[in-house]
């Protein structure tokens, strides 16, 4: 477009007008500039341009609201929310880009986003009696964000359970020590409870859990632990519904270390016990095993308790009044049913290594009161730790059941992992 300049004559004529000399020229210039802008920019709103917002490159409207809609369940302010299955976050007409769920202490809840970005769910249960804050953000197809914030509180359980675990936190144990957890209530939802417990090792090894009944869960690797292994147990039971209306109330991390390897083999026929440490035979000890009428179980057994002096009563292990022995020295439990390896002060010295006379235990020569550290029983007691393995073979008895003590090693791995 050509814009004609203002001629000098016109300017002079305008300037000679009385009173209007200061207004005429700017008005003409403004008119020409408006004509120029209109010609270069095209028609205004009346000619079909967009209105109602500032236009960006590409045609999107900068100030328009996002089309994405975020929905959070449970609703804001909800109380007595179930700890599992209730929390879900979704987006319509857009995709979730950020989700944060945290309790009042700032502990975040781990979650999983759907592949298409339209939903988010926690990967585990929530804690009971806990207030949570939720912040979720979604974007629509034009990149515009929509956010939502809510709070809710989980239920306060009337009935609860915990797990009593072994070994103890910070302990050093033998290579045969499993992780064993006994629950205070029978569990009818074992999958949820087992999912809430993790057992890891450094160096890493595959570890699997196995249920004995509905109140005991043990974890172990396929073979004995390697010496020096660091094991971590995380009990995230708070809020887990173990049975209808019964919730866990325990959040605990336990660590323990595997010490040197010691595996002792009792040959009931030869009446000896060979102690092997880190693959080397370090001592052979004469023993007495179970008499023909009260034989000793065969199998792999783990030392679960140690008593420098204790009392042994036949009635406590299923016998009648056959025996009641006070001051039994250097006793170490091998089974729940009462199998021990212990010192024996009442049998004659020549019994050990030549005759089996016990009620099912493995006896080593000792003195009453456990005061003599030079006896074979004292030596074995002082050189053993919780978690060491004692294997009994060539006894005229059956193999010990895997749930009788910490003795899951007697179950084949293929059965253990079923």
Automatic annotation (TrEMBL):
UniProt keywords, alphabetically: Acyltransferase, Cell shape, Cell wall biogenesis/degradation, Peptidoglycan synthesis, Transferase
Annotated L,D-TPase catalytic domain residues: 262-393
SUPFAM superfamilies in the record: L,D-transpeptidase catalytic domain-like
Pathway: Cell wall biogenesis; peptidoglycan biosynthesis
Active site, UniProt feature: 342 (proton donor/acceptor), 361 (nucleophile)
UniProt entry tagged with the keyword Iron: no
Family annotation (InterPro entries): Big_10, LD-transpeptidase, LD_TPept_cat_dom, Transpep_catalytic_dom
Keyword Transferase: yes
A Pfam match: YkuD
Name of this protein: Ig-like domain-containing protein
Annotated source species: Streptomyces ficellus
């Amino acid at each position: 477009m050509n814009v004609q300049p203002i001629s000098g004559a016109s300017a002079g004529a305008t300037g000679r007008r009385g009173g209007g000399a200061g207004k005429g020229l700017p008005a003409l210039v403004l008119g020409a500039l408006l004509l120029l802008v209109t010609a270069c920019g095209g028609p205004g709103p009346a000619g079909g341009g967009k209105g109602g917002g500032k236009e960006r490159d590409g045609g999107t409207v900068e100030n328009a609201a996002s089309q994405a809609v975020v929905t959070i369940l449970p609703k804001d302010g909800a109380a007595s929310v179930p700890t599992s299955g209730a929390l879900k976050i979704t987006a319509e007409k857009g995709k979730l880009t950020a989700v944060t769920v945290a309790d009042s202490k700032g502990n975040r809840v781990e979650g999983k986003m759907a592949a298409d970005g339209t939903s988010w769910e926690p990967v585990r249960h929530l804690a009971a009696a806990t207030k949570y804050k939720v912040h979720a953000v979604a974007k629509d197809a034009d990149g515009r964000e929509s956010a939502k914030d809510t709070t809710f509180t989980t239920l306060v359980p009337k009935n609860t359970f915990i797990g009593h675990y072994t070994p103890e936190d910070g302990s050093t144990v033998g290579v045969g020590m499993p992780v064993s957890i006994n629950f205070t209530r029978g569990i009818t939802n074992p999958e949820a409870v087992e999912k809430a417990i993790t057992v890891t090792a450094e160096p890493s090894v595959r570890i699997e859990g196995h249920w004995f009944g509905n109140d005991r869960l043990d974890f172990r690797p396929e073979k004995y632990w390697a010496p020096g292994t660091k094991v971590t147990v995380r009990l995230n039971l708070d809020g887990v519904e173990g049975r209808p209306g019964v919730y866990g109330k325990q959040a605990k991390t336990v660590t323990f270390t595997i010490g040197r390897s010691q595996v002792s083999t009792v040959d009931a026929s030869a009446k000896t016990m060979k102690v092997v440490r880190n693959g080397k035979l370090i001592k052979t000890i004469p023993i007495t095993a179970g008499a023909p009428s009260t034989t000793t179980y065969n199998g792999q057994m783990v030392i679960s308790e140690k008593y420098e002096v204790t009392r042994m009563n036949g009635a406590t292990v299923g016998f009648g009044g056959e025996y009641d022995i006070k001051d039994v020295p250097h006793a170490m439990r091998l089974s729940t049913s009462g199998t021990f390896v212990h010192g024996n002060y009442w049998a004659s010295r020549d019994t050990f290594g030549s005759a089996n006379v016990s009620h099912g235990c493995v006896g080593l020569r000792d003195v009453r009161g456990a005061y003599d550290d030079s006896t074979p029983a004292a030596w074995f007691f002082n050189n053993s730790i919780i978690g060491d393995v004692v294997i009994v073979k060539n006894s005229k008895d059956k193999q010990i059941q895997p749930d009788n003590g910490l003795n899951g090693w007697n179950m084949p791995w293929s059965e253990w992992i079923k």
